[in-house]
Amino acid sequence: MENIRIQDDLYTYVNQAKLEELVIPDDMPTAGGFATLSTEIEKLMIGEFNSMCESADYPNEHMARACTLYTLAKDVKRKKKHGIKPALKNLAILKKLGTTRSFNLHTKELILKGIAMPINIAVDANMKDTVHHCVMIQGASVILPDVSYYKNEEQRDMLLGMWSGFAKQVLAIAGHSEEECDALLKDTLAFDALIAKYAKSQEEWSEYTKMYNPMNTGRVAGMVKPLNLKKLLTDLFGFVPEEIIVTEPRYFKNFKEIFNQDTFEMYKNWAYVVTLMEGCGLLSEELRDLGGAFRRALTGVAAVSSAEKYAYQLASNMYSEPVGLYYGEKYFGEEAKKDITDIVKQIVATYQKRIVNNDILEQATKDKAILKLSKMGLKLGYPDRVEEIYSKLVFDESKSLFEIVYSLRKIRMEDNFAKLNKETDRTHWAMPGHMVNACYDPFVNDITFPAAILQPPFYSINQTRSENLGGIGAVIGHEISHAFDSNGAKCDELGNLNNWWTKADEQKFNKKVNAMIKQFDGIELPWGTVNGKFTVSENIADNGGMAVTLDIMSNSEGVSFEEYFANWARVWCQKAKPEYQALLLQVDVHGPNCLRANMPPRNFPEWYDAFRVKKTDGMYLAPSKRIVIW
Ligand SMILES: [Zn+2]
């Protein structure tokens, strides 16, 4: 082991031994931290599913369905018997569409069948009036993980070539001749290139308030011709809403170039190929392997996951809330829930105090920030009931797995469309209880901490208070900070897009945001370069999470900063395939784990005091460059 000093590299100092011993499983891109916890929960729940299936003793109807789906998805012989046929049957409708005119007669059907479309429609909370829903319209997705991959021609051609190789094998299984395969793929890549020209990059999506572009429906209908938008909306909703939200204005401005009578054949072939590839996981094992091969290559994963693991992931995803509730009730005690509630309340109170003392905001803005904090909803552990939709997720067991899952997705889509005229449900949980993650929902103004993350190293009744503050405490502070990051600061206490800042406040705030972008931008890692703008919201949140928990630490007796910082570094411990790290740099708004561990501390005096960090140390930052926002 190398002789690393904590003052130079907190992350490696703390995790060195663990990183040497960690082994990345063959079917995963990472190990350690979040991944290890998720794998453990998965193992535990697969055991639960197996024993429920064996005894046929289910806690409720939802879990009975989840277990049935699990059993069917695990049955490789059954899937082999159905082969590729169910997917081809679903795609047969495309053959009937000769022109855009006939396409327009079937757009609703195409959507409900899960066939790739040049536009995507969904109902979501209206960002300016989050009590009500609105219709959102979005473009199609590109084949590669992000449009940024298309900028470098060499990389683009290499990756699309690799993808085409797998697609060709799938098309051959579907019965296409060599020439047919080549023609289908040529069209697919040509249509993909049209989309890539105008689709948003992940960096653009990360400024999510820019999704809100309300437009008169008549105007949008004119932009997407020859697609008959008004007919489609009438079919979906029974009427034409006056206004819709265009999330990708550039794509729709240029829509006519992407989709028209001349590109229609191309669209059809693209839709056929990408939809077929997307459904492979639900077909035979051979097809599941081929369908996931590109993603595995991109992330450096060596092997396809077992049929059992895949079946569990599918079932726990389709029935996520009932599975999360089952996990939470069985494995997360009331005592832990009470303890964690106390920690959250203390963090909120400390945040409030810090806003009062904040030097960038004027009084009126501070009052609004405090109001926003006081109205923040807390969802800790797991919900006390499952949503109504789960009673509708019933399926015909005699059908193929493909047909079952597509029928369940259809029910979910119909349920989503039916929400348009209903008020939003603020009691909805954004994450299920068995998920190792946490989030802040800017359009509801609430935080969600599923039971699964409330475990060591994040949290334990048996860990010291300092460790819990460096672990779950800082993560709670992180999520709360999202209410005040460069996106969240644009929404008010009800989650409505609403500017509650004065000009002067905004200027001071943006200066700090820019400083944070600079702090990360251009950092070179073995797998690529960090994009400071893309990751700024997460970096502000990490900084805020640390500021508020260090404040609590500094005002408490008998705490240990060594334990605090060590556990902060421990939660980010991760061994990952370099291919995966490179992918994350392009598609993940979070910075790389080693930076999440090592960058925030150097902004705080507690770090320098705890370890006597000096100018000559690796994790020293000149006082003029240190940033604390919240
Ligand atoms: Zn975050």
Bound molecules: zinc ion
User: Low-confidence spans: pLDDT under 50, at least 5 residues?
Assistant: none
Rg from alpha-carbon coordinates: 25 Å
Describe the largest sheet. 4 strands, mixed
Strand content: 5-15%
Gross CATH architecture of the largest domain: 3-Layer(aba) Sandwich
Structural class: alpha+beta
Q: Helical amount among residues, as a percent range?
A: 55-70%
The CATH topology of the largest domain is what?
Collagenase (Catalytic Domain)
Strand order of the largest sheet: 2-3-5-4
What global shape is seen? globular
Amino-to-carboxy terminus distance: 38 Å
Main CATH class of the largest domain: Alpha Beta
Q: Report mean pLDDT, rounded to a whole number.
A: 96
CATH homology superfamily name of the largest domain: Collagenase (Catalytic Domain)
Task: Give a short synopsis of this structure.
The protein is of the alpha+beta class and about 625 residues long. About 55% of the residues lie in helices and about 5% in strands.
